[in-house]
Structure formats: C-alpha cells, structure tokens
Amino acid sequence: MGTFVKFYIDGKECIARHGTQLVKAACENNIYIPTLCNYPGIPPKGACRICAVIVNDKAVTACTTKVSESIVVHNNTPELEKFRKSVVEMLLSEGNHFCPSCEKSGTCELQALAYRYRVTVSGFPYMFPFREIEAWHPKLMKDHNRCIQCKRCIRGIKNDQRKSIFAFGKRGTHVEINIDHDASEGISDELAQRSMDICPVGAILRKRKGFDVPIGRRKYDNKPIGSDL
Amino acid sequence: MGRKITIEPVTRVEGHGKVTIHLDDNGEVAQSRLHIVEFRGFERFVQGRPYWEVPVLVQRLCGICPVSHHIAAAKALDVVVGAGTGDGLTPVAEKMRRLMHYGQIFQSHTLHFFYLASPDLLFGYDAAPEKRNVINIAEANKELAVQAIMMRKYGQEVILATAGKKIHGTGAIPGGVNKNLSIHERDALLHGEPQLSADKMVELSQSALEFFKDYYKKNKSFIDNFSRFDSNYLSLVRKDGALDLYHGVLRAVNSEGKKILNDVDYQDYLEYIREDVRSWTYMKFPYLTHLGKDQGWYRVGPLARLNTADFIPTALAQKEFEEYKKNTFGSPNNMCMHTHWARLIETLHAAEMIRDLLNDSDLQKENLVTTGTRQGRGVGVIEAPRGTLFHEYEVNNDDQITKCNLIVSTTNNNEPMNRGVNHVAKAFMSGKKEITESMMNAVEVVIRAYDPCLSCATHAYGEMPLEISLYDSKENVIEQKRK
Question: How far apart are CA A209 and CA B46, in angstroms?
C-alpha cells in the first residue's frame, strides 16, 4: 500500500495513493479524463492519446502516468479539449464508422466521445478504406472497418493457457487485429461476450446475438460518457 | 410539331423522379412515363454484413416507413434463425411487432392523407400551387390540421414504445423482439393525454373517414373517374381471407375479382413474381410470372388490399368496408382515387388493432426470442403502408449476407403508376394548345394517390421532388417544370 499524496488537477486539490494511475486517481477524485485504449484491470498502453494531459508543463498520457506528491495537472483546458476532439475526428475519418447500423451504437465509447466533443462531421477527409470482415470464427466476428487498434482485446482477452486470442496481422498502414485460429479455438460464450465488451467500438461482435439491448437501456443512452464517475 | 413535357420534380411524394409526356404532331399524347432517376444499391452493400445487423441497416432505406423494412427483414431472418415463417414467434414477440407495424401504418396513412393528399382535395388540383400545401390546410381548417398532427404523433408514440425510437428503432431482431411493453408504456398509450389515447384515435379515424365521404358526395364524378382503369391486385391476406397487414399468404385477383394467385406461401415468391427492367428508369416492373409482362402487372396498397381481402377483422373497419364494397356491388374497386377511401378504412383498422393489442396482456410477457435450426435463406413479406413489401436474404455458413433482393411496395405499383400518368395525360393534355400548371398537377395527383416512396423503390438517396418534361416528336424539350 502506497502512502497518500496530494496533487492538483485544474487547480483542485486531490488525494490518491502514491503511484496510482493518473486516470484512476482523477476518477477517485470525481474528475473525468477521457480514455479509449485504457481499460481497468489491464496494463495501460498510451496508444490512443486521448487522455493527454499537461503534468508539470509537459504533455503526457494520463493512463501511463502515475501520481506523485504535488504534481500539477491540467486536464480540462480548451487546448486539450480541442486536441481530444481532433483525435476522435481522426479515428472517425480513418475507418468506416457507420453508427446507424452498428450494434454497439449507444454503448460505443468512440461514439460517446464524439457526442461529448460535439463532432457532427470530421474535420479531416474521410479515407473510406476498403476492409474485410473476418467472419470464419464460430462465435466471433471481427469487423476491421470499425477497429481503432487500441489493443484492448490483445491485452485483455486471454484463453485458458493465458494466451491472447487476438493478435496483430499485416504491417504498416495495413496492420489489423485478427482472431488467432489456435488460441481462440473452443472459447466459451462468456469469453466471446467479454471480447465484445472489451472492444470500445463495434469491431468485435459476438455472433448470432445482436441488438438485444433496447434503445433507452444502452450504456450511454441516459448517461453521457464521463458522467458516471 | 410534336412536343415533350417534363414534370420535374413531382412534389408531395416521398422520393425523386420525373414525368415525361411526349406529344405527337397533332398535340395528342403519344407516350407518358414516370422515371425514377436515382440509384442507391442497398441490395449490394448489405452483402457481407452479419445477418442480425440487417433489420437495422435496411430500414435506412426510408424515413417514412422504416418500420416496414425493419420488420420485413426481421421476418426473413426469423426463417434464417429457425424461428419459422411468421407463426413461430412467441406471442409477445409477434404482438409487439404487430403493434409496431400498426403504429407505422397509422402514422404513415395519416401523413399521406392529411399532409400530402388533402391539399388537392380541399383546394382542388387546379388551385394555385402556392395554396396547395399543408400550411394552407392549417390556415383553412385548423381543426383538421390539429387532428392530423395528433394522429401522426400517436402513431409515432406507438413506434417509440415498441422500437425504442420514433424513426429507425431496433425493436425487431431475428427470432423475436428485444423488449416487451411495460405497464407504464401501455397505460400511456391506452389512456395517457386526453388527445392521445387509443379510443381517441379510433374516434379521429372515424372522423377522417366522414370527412372523405362527405367530400366524395360532393365530388363523386372526380373521385370515381379520375384515372380509373382495370388491373390485377396483389396483397397478403390472412389464411381465412381476412385483411392482415403483418402476415399471411399471397393472394392476387383480377379486375373482376377472380383469384389469379390463390393464397400461396410467400417463401416461394420467386415462382410467382418476376421483375422486368427498362432502360429509362431505375425502378423495376414486377409482374405475375404465369400471366407474363403484358397481362401480369398488378396494383398493391390500400386499394388492392380491400380488393383481395374477404373481410376486415375489426368491427368498425368491417362496417366501413361493407359500405365501401357496396359502392362497387362487391366487385373489385378499379377507381384510383378510391385509394384514399381505402387508406382511411385501413387507418381505422390500425387504430382498432392498436387499441385491442394494448389490452392484450401477452405484451407484458418475457419470452422474447425463438430460435431453431439455422437456414440458409429466408423471405419476409409484409403489407407496408404503400403495399406488399418483399425482402429476401441468403446467408452463408459464416453468418454473412450473400444475396439480398428487395421488391418494395412502390416498385410493385410501377406499371399502374405509369398507366395512371398516361391516362391522366391523355385526358388533360391531349390536343391542348397550352399546358397549364393545373394540368401538370393533375398528373401529380394520380401519382400521389399511390403514395409512392420513390427513394424506397430505387433504394435511392437524394432530394425528393419530381419534374415533368414536355417533348416534341423530334425529342426536343419544349417545356420543363420543376417544383
């Protein structure tokens, strides 16, 4: 158990155990720092950059930063909010995100952040990449159109032998996250559901089971992202 | 020298299209065509998508009747998931879908009659164009306008309670539904606000019928004779011959009432119906296979449904149906403008169905989904507000759509709409020295009677209006009007 330290976010005095992840420490002090690639219980990666904050005058990712005594954090500033909105816009432009027919609509973190930052249309040109759907697996479907390559699935979903059932494939701009044939063989329904749930967007779908949560009861229907600390 | 008239865009319809009318050297109408000029390609881009996504995806064909596409697709995919062909769902699932569908019928019919068609009836097709719109309806008859708004609102509220959203909800899923109706939702629809109760909607539907019948008494010749022509008629009917807008068997009758398609299973629709394509329009021309292209075309929608059905299974609508049938001595009604009458009888039927369903405790049950043995193909057919709607899907072993075929209500009415346009063009324009705005609107009036959704029919995207062009015999554009 670390000792408690005092630190500041946007001028507010906060308290957390020394070494706590900044995102988590902020949450414990009722302050929201947006995240996408971060997921409770799995090691942080700092991949998406949406949790960027200024700590002691230096830009860092809050998911990979630990709190220490007297650090001064800037979180809710116009510059950072503009930067975060740009990250959301870039992700929307880079893939094919058609919310109207996506079953993650209403529970999608990217969509929820787009609402938070009032993204009505991306400021970047849409790339409309041609991407396939990986549908061979009996329980899972991987829609590469929607994948934001946050790696939450690679880091967080392991089979009984502790091996990741998702893995990177291809290279460079063609890189994609695939379902591993061997590691994913015979996975349980529960693990398939966890795979879908850990994905912040609609890139991992559990087969033959969709739209079973009615509109009005989905995660962000009544509580916008960041309001449920 | 001959001339060609183009009416573009046609207004107060859902979709974008144009009408061309060719005049010969003597000024007589030689040929008239309704062109649908957009292409969207839903049948292609749905390929590869997971099947359970389809009911939510394809409803984006339309913002007026998305529920029809949503449910037709869900019915097709019921077959794919092994939940049977319309009668395998749990009671709560089937009744929730029916409630959603009758809510849709109610709001769509109301929208068409009051917002789109009534300006022609109240002010006349030859009234000034700036007068023929819903705003002037509101000024001329405030009570009628309020009635229209309340009826449409109620239908949308029914959809909201069953699908989660008033437009583009997610209520129907393959094999069932994703929610039941809570007691709170039921009570709000049954006897919520005074102007928004189920009984009030029945009352308002009766009032709308009285409004039309009063108009009919005063304008009998126009309503009886405007674009009147014989045709075949196709729709679903319940197995016992009752009007059923959600499920049944396919029945077609000819203009004399003889059955030419005798209550067949719609899973085999490809055996009975084919589609012809023509180079000048994106909308196809369906026909009954055994009668061929020339004799097999048919009408769908309210007029057709009241010609194919033997009776209506709700008391008040049945009474109106009997009066309506007396008008043609029990024979099929071939009078185009009587479609409005038939539509209002269906509106009353929908209101009664909604009221009866709301009183059914099955809607509060919890068993929402049925599954069975996976199939590779499914067909879903429903009676959408504008007529019979076909959805067919093939699904591979990886659960992806590999083929999709949609025959949309308005597509089924393509040939009759073209014939109606030709009929009216000949009656109003042949031999006339000047083509007036009211003549052009007469052409639109006949198209409007079918309540076409041109964006559905071509699965098209874009602005909605329609245009009319006038051509001479040398194919030169003489006159063109857009609205």
Answer: 18
Whole domain around residue B426: which residue ranges? 1-38+414-436+446-483
Nearest to A101 among B56, B163, B178 (CB): B56
Q: A interface mutation test: which of B67, B178, B180, B374 has the most A CBs within 10 A? A: B178
- The whole-angstrom distance between A196's CA and the closest CA on chain B is 15
DSSP symbol at A42? S
Q: B13 with B130, same domain?
A: no
Rounded distance, CA A221 to CA A215, Å?
7
Give which of B104, B156, B3, B18 is closest to B409, Cα–Cα.
B104
In this prediction, residue B463 carries a pLDDT of 41
Residues of A in contact with B48 (CB under 8 A): 133
Contact: B178, A211; criterion CB under 8 Å: yes
Q: Assess whether B219 and B240 both reside in one domain.
A: no
Tell me the three-class secondary structure of chain B, residue by residue. Answer: CCEEEEEECCCCCECCEEEEEEECCCCCEEEEEEEECCCCCHHHHCCCCEHHHHHHHHHHHCCCCHHHHHHHHHHHHHHHCCCCCCCCCCHHHHHHHHHHHHHHHHHHHHHHHHHHHHHHHHHCCCCCCCCCCHHHHHHHCHHHHHHHHHHHHHHHHHHHHHHCCCCCCCCEECCEECCCCCHHHHHHHHHCCHHHCHHHHHHHHHHHHHHHHHHHHHCHHHHHHCCECCCEEEEEECCCCECCCCCCEEEEECCCCCEEEEEECHHHHHHHEEEECCCCCCCCEEEEHHHHHHHCCEECCHHHHHHHCCECCCHHHHHHHHHHHHCCCCCCCCECCHHHHHHHHHHHHHHHHHHHHHCCHHHHCCCCECCCCCCCEEEEEEEECCEEEEEEEEECCCCEEEEEEEECHHHHCHHHHHHHHHHHHHHHHCCCCCCCHHHHHHHHHHHHHCCCEHHHHCCCCCCCCEEEEEEECCCCEEEEEEC
Chain A partners within 8 Å of B170 (Cβ): 211, 214-215
Residue B315 domain-assigned (yes or no):
yes
Q: What is the ipTM of this complex?
A: 0.93
Q: Does position B90 have pLDDT exceeding 80, yes or no?
A: yes
Substitution target in B70, B170, B461 with the highest count of A β-carbons within 10 Å is B170
pLDDT tens for B148-174 read: 999 999 999 999 999 999 999 999 999
Q: In chain A, what are the domains?
A: 4-76 (3.10.20.740), 84-206 (3.30.70.20)
Quick one: B358 and B342 in the same domain?
yes
Chain segment A142-189, per-residue pLDDT in tens: 999 999 999 999 999 999 999 999 999 998 888 999 999 999 999 999
* Nearest CB to B60; choose among A101, A135, A205: A101
CA distance A88 to A202: 15
For residues A22 and A31, is the Cβ–Cβ distance under 8 A?
no
The greatest distance separating any two alpha carbons of chain B, rounded to the nearest whole angstrom, comes to: 71
> Closest approach of chain A CAs to the CA of B162, in angstroms?
9
